[in-house]
Amino acid sequence: MRAVVSALARYNSWMNAAVRAAGAKLAAPDRHKNVGATFKSLHGTLNHIMVADRMWLARFVGRPVPTDPLDAILYTDEGEFWATRDALDAEIQSVADGRSDDAWAAILSVPRLSGRVLSRPAWLMALHMLNHQTYHRGQATTILMQNGVDPGPTDLPVMPGADAIASDRPFGDLAGRDVFSLLARYNAWSNATLYEQCAGLDDAARTRDLGAFFKSIHGTLGHILVGDRIWLARFRGQPVPMVGLGDVPYARFDDLRQARRDLDADVVAFAESLDDGWLAQPFSFVSAAYRATFTRATWLLLLHMFNHQTHHRGQATVMISQLGLVPGETDLISTPGLD
Questions:
Q1: Which positions ≥6 away from 255 have C-beta within 8 Å?
Q2: pLDDT for 276-306, tens place per residue?
Q3: Alpha helices, DSSP H only, in the chain?
Q4: Closest CA to 18 of 118, 167, 154
Q5: Torsion angle of alpha carbons 184, 189, 195, 198, nearest 10°?
Q6: pTM for the predicted model, two decimal places
């Protein structure tokens, strides 16, 4: 799993730098303003990511685990914050690159806030840490957009150096279908949780333009669905749906929800059928969004499909919070059935 963890660590470092550059375009009061997000502000959201990363990194390297509250503001000085963020990203990358597949396969036991102890392979804990970054950074990018700042590309395949990422054994001794089946089940569970929350809003609230990338909650959910359909068609060698990334395929929420359920079942079935030989091959595709042809490792592109879902679910939950609801459980390591 070293190749997978390493690729996601590189992605997160790249995206943290992008958010830093985008945030610098805002006045300091706007970065600290309470906009009704889970962790209130852009600065609060970024501090939360750091709080969690420091805890996880300590567990991986055997240091005492920090006990800061999850909503702690570790650094009010933003220069100090970003210097620490850069050093933390460098250490995460070093750990990702330096651990062997056997070390990533070792069981790590972690106490949760509920008092329950979770025992999972270290690679799964690492994927959770990096997925957690993606989710909350999705929240951060929505706050940026609502303040008129576009953070730029967020897609893993266009990350600098992504074309050079390759491995014939990216999952170590694991089968790729087992890793992606887990991610598919996680996404199905997360989507079901998110849609259940959205069902508590009326149509006017779900479709209200709140200044996000895809304007509204409904538009964001529609984009995730469109993206997944495009990627599944590519992977299966089928005609790619001719729809815009901002198109909403279903005006009625109930129709969108049922389409999401059906697609999630299809994604799980697809993941369970994967072959490691196919995953290790290069895969070429034409991107209408970037007006270019890309060739990347197939496993990296499939990883992107799931990461893309997490990113945009994070965006949706900012709007849910702003409308007065509390987002539900989103942790990868809490996916039902892992025990």
A1: none
A2: 999 999 999 999 889 999 999 999 999 999 9
A3: 2-23, 28-32, 42-61, 78-98, 101-105, 122-146, 176-198, 203-206, 217-236, 253-272, 276-280, 298-322
A4: 154
A5: -130
A6: 0.96
